[in-house]
């Protein structure tokens, strides 16, 4: 009798209310469909600019990036800064996995050193920008739970599915609220909430273009920090799919050979 009572009590704590289940099912379905539409691209290379803005001042950096799919929900990426001289050669390598924390390494040419980014360090600023290291990873769906909130207006027009995704793995965020465009399931906006539940940053994504008749990629991402007033803009250009990116070249041992 005691065992049965404890079992019922445990189930009452773990089973979600019936009213919450449809929202979770719908949110999960939206996220899964968006991920499905954005898989199978193989590999790509792209050029970019990072513009840091604080008050009335701004500074610009230029970089090249490569991505390659290595399995279901898994990928590798490499971002290498090319200009200006004080950051030239600095590189971020990410190995992304399905359902668990990614591995990240930072190559610092001035120190001739590869630094592994720890789990606690993933919430830190990526090269002084408003993007955290974890923002530079693929937001693989297995790392989150997804709950549909409502359908509403997209920033800039149109209709969006608004979905809350909560991290299952180590994160500097307690919640990310995501706006998926209902027409193509591209992400138009993400609001980031810290571990205390405060809305700290907003990412606006725009300038989408479709490649190979299937894959949507943005040309502009603006991360606004509501605590500091600072912003970082990433602009992307020259997307090349099936560029022949070798996943074996995207390894920690290869970082010191970057030119």
UniProtKB/TrEMBL annotation:
<feature type="signal peptide">
    <location>
        <begin position="1"/>
        <end position="20"/>
    </location>
</feature>
<keyword id="KW-0732">Signal</keyword>
<dbReference type="InterPro" id="IPR033399">
    <property type="entry name" value="TP_0789-like"/>
</dbReference>
<feature type="domain" description="Uncharacterized protein TP-0789">
    <location>
        <begin position="74"/>
        <end position="257"/>
    </location>
</feature>
<dbReference type="Pfam" id="PF17131">
    <property type="entry name" value="LolA_like"/>
</dbReference>
<keyword id="KW-0449">Lipoprotein</keyword>
<protein>
    <submittedName>
        <fullName>Outer membrane lipoprotein-sorting protein</fullName>
    </submittedName>
</protein>
């Amino acid at each position: 009798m005691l065992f049965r009572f404890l079992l019922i009590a445990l189930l009452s704590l773990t089973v979600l209310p019936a009213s919450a289940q449809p929202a979770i099912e719908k949110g999960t379905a939206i996220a899964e469909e968006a991920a499905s539409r954005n898989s199978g691209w193989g590999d790509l290379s792209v050029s970019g600019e990072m513009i840091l803005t604080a008050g009335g001042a701004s500074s610009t950096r230029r970089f090249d990036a490569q991505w390659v799919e290595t399995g279901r929900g898994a990928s590798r990426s490499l971002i290498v800064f090319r200009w200006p001289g004080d950051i030239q050669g600095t590189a971020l390598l990410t190995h992304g996995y399905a359902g668990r924390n990614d591995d990240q390494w930072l190559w610092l040419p001035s120190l001739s050193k590869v630094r592994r980014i720890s789990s606690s360090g993933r919430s830190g600023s990526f090269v002084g920008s408003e993007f955290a290291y974890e923002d530079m990873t693929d937001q693989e769906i297995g790392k989150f739970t997804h709950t549909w909130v409502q359908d509403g207006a997209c920033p800039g027009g149109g209709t969006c599915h608004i979905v809350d995704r909560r991290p299952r793995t180590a994160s500097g965020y307690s919640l990310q609220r995501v706006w998926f465009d209902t027409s193509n399931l591209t992400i138009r906006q993400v609001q980031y909430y810290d571990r205390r539940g405060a809305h700290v940053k907003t990412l606006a994504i725009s300038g989408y273009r479709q490649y190979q008749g299937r894959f949507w990629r943005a040309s502009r991402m603006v991360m606004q920090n509501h605590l500091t007033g600072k912003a970082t803009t990433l602009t992307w250009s020259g997307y090349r799919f099936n560029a022949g990116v070798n996943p074996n070249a995207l390894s920690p041992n290869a970082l010191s050979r970057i030119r």
